[in-house]
User: Fold these one by one.
Assistant:
Number 1:
Amino acid sequence: MSETMPPEFWQAVEQFNQGEFYACHDTLEALWLEEVDPLRRFYQGILQIAVACYHLSNLNWRGAAILLGEGMNRLRDYQPTYGGIEVTHLLEQSATLLQQLQALGPENVESLRQQLQANQVGEEAIALSETQPAPCWPQIVLVAPS
């Protein structure tokens, strides 16, 4: 399936992994609008996770929580890999972020965003607790060539 993915998809993956979540949304939305299922639903799942991260970066706790859940639900059927990416990996990272978001609650969204941004630029990441790892933005991992 990866050889059939359009160049715009790989552009969106790069944007996502660089934390350019709104740009990723725009790129994927253009593909999503022209596509049919099952690829349409796949694009939509990634798009929703990207928008969730965008909402979180803008302190919109509710929007982030809702769209993380919706995006994850859309991508579940594409595991373990689809379209040249490790879907299971993206879902696991997204689930961890959603758990951290829910555990901290809306009143602590600024703290979570600061920790995510610090981790993104390579500063020392601080774990939320002994059982919760340091927060990090989800990353889209490409399927290793066989």
Note: The first helix runs from residue 7 to 17.
Number 2:
Amino acid sequence: MSLEKRAVLIAGATASGKSALAIALAHERGGVVVNADAMQVYRELRILTARPSAEDEAQVPHRLYGHVSGQTAYSVARWLADATAELEAVWRSGRVPIVTGGTGLYFKALEQGLADIPLIPPDITQKWREAKGDLHAELAKRDEGAAARLNPNDRQRIIRALEVFEGTGKPLDHWQRAAQSEALLAGVSVERILLNPDRKALYARADERFARMVKEGAVEEVKALLALGLDPKLPVMKAIGVKELAAWLSGWRGLDDAIAAGQTATRQYIKRQLTWWRHQMPGWEERRA
């Protein structure tokens, strides 16, 4: 890809101010805001997922917000395909895509691609998932590179590396390197911004926002979502606040208790997001916001 192509990536935890910064940069640079949040793709949950408001969307172009039915199990691969089409269209128009969101896997796919690993035979998968003992040592015998990169306590990723090596005859990074060479942003001039506000202030902001969502119609959103009778295993049903507010609607808990539970779940999610950025996305420009 031409070095003339540019992109801005804005990542950060829930309630860190990503949308406001994205809109400001879109005004400043003639940009188009492209969503990289796994829950903001669902049309049924504008309020509860803090999607940009209609007023925000009227200021600058927004893409990949609320474009998917909650009946869809939207995946990283599907998002990457959609994002590829949108970014290419933005570049053709001579504008700058400003990709913003809180889903780390989306950014990783954007920058590193998705490894096209052949299907691993079920017997190999079962063998390693049921294996006992020091699996990190087993990995070191087969794939020294992966063993050096992975924490000895990260059992899930160690098992995946063992599966891939035995199932394909090649180490995991072979497939990852192939994906990176074809990654969408390969050769693009990229500005990477990570919003990392003070933790205490971030939690307070998230608490206030969840309470405000309830006042602004989140309960009605959840009620309408539940009326669709969707499979509870679908991603949209796992959005923070759905379970908590559904418990109030069913009479299982009081509204104040439901709000407190939603706030707690949000803070726990923020903690996981911050851990992800710290370990998976080094080298980004950190801003306090």
Note: The chain has a mean pLDDT of 92.
Number 3:
Amino acid sequence: MTSTQSNTQPTTAPPERKPSSTVIAWLSFVTMFVIGTDTFLVAPMLPTLSDEFDVTTSVSGWMVSAYALGFALFALVAGPLSDGRDRRSVLLLGFAGFAAATALCGVAQGFWSMILFRVLAGMSAALVTPQIWASIPVLVPGNAVVKTMGFAGAGMSISQVVGVPLGGWLAASSWHVPFFAVAGLSAVAWLVLFRVFPPVQATPVGERTGFFATYAGLFRSRVFVWYLVGYLAYQTGVFETISFIGSWLARDFGLGVSAIGAAMMALGVGMAITSVFGSHVIKRLGEPRTLACTFVALVLLYGAVPFAPNLAVAITLLALGSAMLGINYPIFMAMLLSQTTAARGTVSSLATTALYVGTTIGGFVGGVLLTEFDGFYGVAGFTVLCLLLAAVVFGGAGAFKTRAAEPATA
């Protein structure tokens, strides 16, 4: 009896095809857009919600602050926790929680239940955005990182433009509708991410550290610490001006709510455009030179705003400033994330917290300066000082010369 030898060779499954850089860019855009839209959704509904829940106008502001507070505080915990897990899983978990919490806001029965659901929505969002920023350097080639981050930044910028008018428009029928609409949009985005977003390998077991060790490792890096301090100073100055543009335009130029909304929309569109297309400038000049040029431009532009002879010039200067902000945002995120490979979620969370802290400081200082000084001199002057401080800090850390070469050990 003759035996035959099988010629069948063992087969291996073809490697899973990862989405292209373009797909990752658009997924990042959509994710940040949805999260950002919810951030600005409540502001135009505050008068309605104040009447609905029978609270004063000053107290109603906590419905906005609750989301930011939940986001900023939980981000400090979510970052280190997510660094040891598959980022896709954390992203989907956070987005599911975000959709559910936002839907619950639409059925809130009172002020305190609304505060609770807004905090939960912010905490869920804190699980989402760090995964996007931390995944980009892993999922796209090095030469596409800044461009892809620009798309993510554009999603956030456009959400600032769309969030306020969208909330007002949807709330025309009922204050419940905007929350249900964003929750539904979040559910659709979740399904897209579930189908398309690839697994992102967690930090290898041998490289993982504990919660406090992660932060200790990051803060042992001199370059990272100075980058974070510079970023805080930068965002403090920038958001101090952004927060009080509307108040200044109303007081000194007599603009109404709709006109101020149109002006802010123009600024947001400018920021979004450069977030997407600024990568061409960055590629041509290089990140250090681009950053140096935008710092010079921002100091000159914001310094000139109080001296604007008319409304058109003032809006033009502010729009050009916003365009510079759009170029800078992906550069800053790339700089911060370049300091580590094992704790990118933590770095993203720290950057977000720095932004919220800067916004809080800027909001407090700007209100005083707008009241105590004529025109926009006090507000713009503080912004210029913050930008100069940030430039000195970044310059001392070598940001204008080369990407830092002292990675954190975390």
Note: The chain has two domains: 18-202, 207-410.
